[in-house]
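Protein: Carboxylic ester hydrolase
Species: Botryotinia fuckeliana
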Amino acid sequence: MTIIGKALIKAVYGMSADTKLYTYLEGCSDSGRQGMSQVQRWGGEYDDGAITGAPAFRYGQQQTAHMFPVVVEQTLNYYPPPCELDQIVTAIIAACDPLNGRTDGVIFLAQIYVHSNSIFTQFSDNLTTVLPKIPHTLVLVSESGRLPVARLLTNQRKM
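Structure follows.
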């Protein structure tokens, strides 16, 4: 496609055959995977640069990870509203953020797995919390809302 594209551009714009056209490839996720494949096969066509962000190489695991939340929600017949999920994320970050010695809003999944039980115990004890995104708003995290997230965190360890 790159060769055809270059020829078409030169023909449409009346460029000479020896005119240099810069060729770049950019893609992320599945397009990143395709980009890596293109560069491996036809690297000379992309000698001006290729940006392949987060190429999806572990396709089987990726698809399972995408489907798992949907399956859990349908199995439990509960779809947590965004405010409830925001509350859960806020609590997870608050509980796990200081574990790496720096409170900066960055957490690692391993920290969530290790401390997921204490996070959900905390929800049982204190069901309402103020969300930082929405000042003066209390959100109730229901047992129905905790269950899908707890199940996701527990089962993601196995992936």
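Remarks: Residues 124-138 have pLDDT under 50 and may be disordered.
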